[in-house]
Amino acid sequence: MFRVSRVRRVMIGAVCALAVSGAAPVHAQAWKPSKPIEIVVGTSPGGPQDRMGRAVQRIIVEKKLIEVPVNVVNKPGAGGAIAMTYLNSHANDPHYVAVNAITTLTNVVMGKSTLGPNDFTPLALMGVEYVSLCVRADSPVKTGRDFVDRLRKDP
Fold first, then answer.
1. Which of 49, 103, 99 shows the shortest CA–CA distance to 80?
2. Is residue 154 in some structural domain?
3. What's the total number of domains in the chain?
4. Cβ contact 113:107 at 8 Å
């Protein structure tokens, strides 16, 4: 996710789609990388986001989809906000992409970051992590519906 022109967004989206699908490279591209690509991950190595970033890296390298190195760069901390701040410092540079989770939205809601979904361009939904809500056993909130009703009353 990053800010980039429409043409570059389409081309990077095509590269990601090719990486995931394993299809043959697109010919006559309007843009191709001129320096190494960084796949920014907001967690330490080994977690779901990191595994997804490394899987995309491996596919791009094994299928020889681009001619420059592809590196996974871990920027853990603050629920992914450190990675998104790093990514935002390279705005409009398509050589930087990120694997991210729902924390891009929740960090804004919780006030941990000023960078949110409107600051980045999603390229693809390639995987889903489990999300759960937990409450104390004595909480009046017992179901997902109870939780939503409570949020409606007092956001």
1. 103
2. no
3. 1
4. yes
Strand order in the sheet with 96-99: 70-74, 37-41, 96-99
Binning pLDDT at 50, 70 and 90, where does residue 76 land? very high
CA angle 35, 39, 44 (to 5 degrees): 140
pTM over 0.85: no
- Quote the tokens at residue 8: 């570059």
Decide: helix, strand or coil at residue 71: strand
Alpha carbons within 13 angstroms on the beta-carbon side of residue 14 total 18
The reply to whether 149 falls in a domain is no
Count Cβ neighbours within 10 Å for each residue of 122-133 and write b for 16 or more, e otherwise: ebeeeeeeeeee
Rounded Cα–Cα distance for residues 3 and 27 (Å) = 24
The arithmetic mean of pLDDT across residues 59-71, rounded, is: 94
